[in-house]
Amino acid sequence: MGKGKRTEKLTxxxxxxxxxxxxxxxxxxxxxCILSDRFSTVSNVVNIFTQSAPMLIIAMGVxxxxxxxxxxxxxxxxxxxxxxxxCGMVASGSSPWLALLATVGVGLACGLLCGALVAYxxxxxxxxxxxxxxxxxxxxxxxSNGQSLWVRDNPVTQVVTASVGPVPVxxxxxxxxxxxxxxxxxxxxxxxxxxxxxxxxxxxxFAGIPVKPIKLLMFGAGGVFYALGGILNALRSxxxxxxxxxxxxxxxxxxxxxxxxILGTKRPNIPGILVGALVLTSISTAFTLLxxxxxxxxxxxxxxxxxxxxxxxxxxxxILQEDLR
Length: 325
What we know:
The protein is globular. It is an all-alpha fold. Mean pLDDT is 88; it is low at 5-9 and 314-324. The longest helix has 34 residues, at 2-35. The protein has 13 helices and 4 strands. The strands form 2 sheets. The protein has a two-stranded antiparallel sheet with strand order 1-4. A two-stranded antiparallel ribbon has the order 2-3. A hairpin with a 2-residue loop joins strand 2 and strand 3 (167-168). The protein is 74% helix and 2% strand.
């Protein structure tokens, strides 16, 4: 009898591991639809995807590094530096394509710097990426003289205003990029090797997988995604707001954390960050439609993240502190 009860308990526990977050977030969206008839409109759904786009791109970069077994906080500075560089070059008359190339190059260089120090010099990814975050924040301030750099009325802003039917071009590009990353990371041998490194470096080395080059590659890719996300975020605001990366740091980390609760993976994964980004954006959008004060959004997002922490552990009798991977 006791064994049967235990089996039932384990089955229910596994059910909530896999479906708990999906059911909870679905219920939350249903409540928003009931409270505001504008929440479920096509225009609002498109708006949620539009607002989520920069955060989703940046979160993809963080997740790539996480999937290789490391943490990355450098995005808190790299995003702002790249956004400022792009807007500064465009505002001074440079070609948007040249500005894009230079900006992505800077993001790649920052990522490779982190990757080299972590993979080949053996430094802690936590300390290394925090150091690079402060370094790039300083460079951002020096480049912009501590001021926001605007690109209002510049044709380059059409990237975020153009649309195909009711769907903005930036949403189409973001979802296309998301699909490519998903297929590479979850449907190819390369993605399997990267995840193997994240699960166990020793086992990966024994299997002949090049651990250090993979870590370097993931940090470099992360830097590229930070640059792209920073540019997109700046264009949505018609300019680069000083320290914009710092403002996005905690929301992006929250998205990557929520992702680990999706379908009971408890591991960094690409599909989960789409859900995480949409959930956080849905909360802020719904509260705006309901006319609530802005600080209630932070309260609600904090509750969602706390709930995600509960779902991310197998033994709910003891809640252990998670690391940033």
